[in-house]
């Protein structure tokens, strides 16, 4: 299946800035810059070996009206390479993502899904190796319990503000959301930190102590806020 919604050139450029980085390095860079983006309590379904990086397509769910509104139709508008970021207000009593959504997202080249809430049909996501990051799992449907309130508006996930097209970096450690307007700065800072850490690893491999290597390369200043 071909996704008619293609990634914008600027999105592709910003995503490429984070290639080769992981959430730990990006998190350290965010700390250095005084930014809050680590989504607490949002965890991967599996120990993914490669980071998921993409612009956020945001979705906000609210309690359903009578009759209930739609739940998953928004996915037709999600571009290839996007990360679906769903704010379900941390609800754990009903799901907003299941096997049909997983299959469809995979077919359309969507990069992954982050949910402040729960998912179900976990075996499908694991079997398809579709990246999912959630607050948990539960089998009860969200139909007639929740509905989509808005898409591409600012949402909250794991106590982190997520604006449309912010850059999401997610891996086996969890999820970090980088404000789009600070993406270049965060990526550059993360690479500088990684360069120092790589040099430390090189020094300890032949026998230097951790103390010596860290002191020589200024390790303890790496994540400290400037000023």
Notes on the protein architecture:
It is a single chain. The protein is an alpha/beta fold and 227 residues long. It has two domains: 172 residues, 3-Layer(bba) Sandwich (Glucose Oxidase, domain 1), CATH 3.50.30; 35 residues, no CATH class. The protein has six helices and eleven strands. The strands form two sheets. Strands 1, 2, 3, 4, 5, 6, 7, 10 and 11 form a nine-stranded mixed sheet that branches. Strands 8-9 form a two-stranded antiparallel sheet. Strand 8 and strand 9 form a beta hairpin. Helix 2 packs across helix 5, helix 3 packs parallel to helix 4 and helix 5 packs across helix 6. The longest helix has 22 residues. The chain is elongated and about 65 Å long. The model has no long low-confidence stretch (mean pLDDT 91).
> Averaged pLDDT, please?
91
Count the helices. How many? Answer: 6
CATH class of the largest domain: Alpha Beta
CATH architecture verdict of the largest domain: 3-Layer(bba) Sandwich
Listing every helix as H and every strand as E from the N terminus to the C terminus, the arrangement reads: HHEEEHEHEEEEEEEHH
Please give the radius of gyration in angstroms: 19 Å
Per-chain topology:
Blueprint: H1 9-16, H2 23-32, E1 43-44, E2 52-63, E3 83-95, H3 99-107, E4 112-119, H4 122-128, E5 132-134, E6 136-137, E7 146-151, E8 155-157, E9 160-162, E10 167-171, E11 174-178, H5 183-204, H6 210-217
Parallel strand pairs: 2-3, 3-4, 4-5, 4-6
Antiparallel strand pairs: 1-5, 2-7, 2-10, 8-9, 10-11
Helix pairs in contact: 2-5, 3-4, 5-6
């Amino acid at each position: 299946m071909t996704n008619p919604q293609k990634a914008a050139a600027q999105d592709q450029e910003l995503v490429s800035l984070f290639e080769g980085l992981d959430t730990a390095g990006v998190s350290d860079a965010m700390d250095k810059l005084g930014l809050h983006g680590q989504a607490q309590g949002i965890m991967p379904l599996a120990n993914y070996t490669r980071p998921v990086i993409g612009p956020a397509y945001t979705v906000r769910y609210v309690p359903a009206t009578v009759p209930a509104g739609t739940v998953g139709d928004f996915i037709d508008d999600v571009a290839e390479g996007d990360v679906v970021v769903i704010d379900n207000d941390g609800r754990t009593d009903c799901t907003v993502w299941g096997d049909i959504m997983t299959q469809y997202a995979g077919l359309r080249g969507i990069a992954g899904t982050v949910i402040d809430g729960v998912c179900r049909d976990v075996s499908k996501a694991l079997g398809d190796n579709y990246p999912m990051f959630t607050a948990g799992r539960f089998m009860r449907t969200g139909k007639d319990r929740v509905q989509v309130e808005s898409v591409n508006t600012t949402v909250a996930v794991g106590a982190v503000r997520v604006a449309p097209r912010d850059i999401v970096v997610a891996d086996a450690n969890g999820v970090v959301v980088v404000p789009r307007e600070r993406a270049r700065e965060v990526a550059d800072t993360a690479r500088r930190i990684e360069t120092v850490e790589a040099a430390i690893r090189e020094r300890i491999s032949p026998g230097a102590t951790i103390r010596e290597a860290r002191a020589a390369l200024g390790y303890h200043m790496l994540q400290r806020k400037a000023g």
